[in-house]
Amino acid sequence: MQGRRLEGKTTLVTGAGSGIGAAISRRFAEEGAFVFVLDIDLSSAESTVETIRGQGGDSVAVAADVAESGQCDQIRDQVLQQRGALDVLVSNAGIGHVGTLLQTEGSDMDRLYRVNVRGVFNMAKAFLASMIERGSGHIINMASIGGVVAVRDRLAYCTSKFAVVGLTKSIALDHARQGIRCNCICPGRVETPFVTARLKEYPDPEAAYREMASTQALGRMAKPEEIASAALYLASDESAFVTGTEFLIDGGWSAGK
Length: 257
Ligand SMILES: NC(=O)c1ccc[n+]([C@@H]2O[C@H](COP(=O)([O-])OP(=O)(O)OC[C@H]3O[C@@H](n4cnc5c(N)ncnc54)[C@H](O)[C@@H]3O)[C@@H](O)[C@H]2O)c1
What we know:
The structure is a single chain. A 7-stranded parallel beta sheet has the order 3-2-1-4-5-6-7, with helices on both faces. It has helices at about 20-30, 40-55, 70-85, 105-135, 155-175, 195-200, 205-215, 225-235; strands at about 10-15, 35-40, 60-65, 90, 135-140, 180-185, 245-250. Helices cover about 45% and strands about 15% of the residues. Helix 5 (about 155-175) links the parallel strand 5 and strand 6 (about 180-185). By secondary structure, it is of the alpha/beta class. The protein contains 8 helices and 7 strands; from the N terminus they run E-H-E-H-E-H-E-H-E-H-E-H-H-H-E. The N and C termini lie far apart (about 40 Å). Helix 1 runs parallel beside helix 2, helix 1 crosses helix 8 (about 225-235) and helix 3 (about 70-85) packs parallel to helix 4. It has one domain: NAD(P)-binding Rossmann-like Domain (Rossmann fold, 3-Layer(aba) Sandwich). Bound molecules: nicotinamide-adenine-dinucleotide. Nicotinamide-adenine-dinucleotide binds near residues 39, 44 and 187.
């Protein structure tokens, strides 16, 4: 058990049955937070919770599709009933699509928008009023390097992640004086099932892996735990003066070619 930088905090992480969300949930629990582990896939959320409880942490699994506002509101009701308030919301759930404009259908745009943008909007909207009423709350959204610079062959994904950055800055600006902080994290490539799935879409997955790793100045992908460290900093009181930022953790990707 490491330090306890989130002792007594109630947190909720979406898309927490896998990859980055699971790593953030584990880290928050290690630091003393109670974690609602939300995923559209309940069994994966339950497996994250099992790991957390196995390490002595406190956590509960909840199932919801973040693209459905009614389901987000139901989760909010459950969280407030069980814990009284939510201190930190991490909207991490997201999906991808590989393709240029010519390789992207309107239905792909709609699918990514529903989860990556409406999902973040729905969760923030569900919890914001209760946070404002209490005079404190922190919303952390998972954007991407693809929300800061264009990434080749990722038209729909980049469009959705640029929107997440805009949404984050708007919430931060509009509600800063009400005790709300809102930030987003922009990872470079991270070794998760999300990336593994993308790699399978290439004719030569091994070559694609090498190419993906090389886009980062550090020449490797990040581990999910490295993104969880950034989420922990943002979730903790150490970042009290940080709001409206896109926190780049990209291995030097955006530093230049
Ligand atoms: N892996 C990367 O290289 C990378 C880089 C930058 C940003 N990101 C972003 O980080 C986030 C997490 O990525 P990951 O790599 O851990 O992905 P992942 O696919 O491993 O995990 C995503 C989780 O979200 C869940 N999910 C998907 N749609 C959902 C919905 N509608 N409602 C609730 N849960 C849903 C999935 O079931 C899954 O458990 C995403 O927003 C992604 O865009 C990932």
